[in-house]
Amino acid sequence: MKIRSVKKIADVEIFHINDLSQKINELNIRMMILAFPAEGVQAVVDCCVANGVKAFLNFVPASLKVPEGVKIQTSDVTLELQSLVYYT
Fold this sequence. Notes:
Number of helices: 3
Mean pLDDT: 90
Distance between the termini: 52 Å
């Protein structure tokens, strides 16, 4: 079944979360950027890991659990902004 994008923003296609598994496999995605509200993020990460994603750049303010062999690099945007404010 071909997946259709839900909408397009500045030439970037947006897909429904229900199509995540298929898109990961179709595009052979192995690294993801997490940048959305914390609610439900663990379920998204679990789905990604189950479909072969091995690394995450995490901007979500949540503690995540992943199996051994999967890497999460978390960046706290509020701390980064506070650091920049110091110099202004």
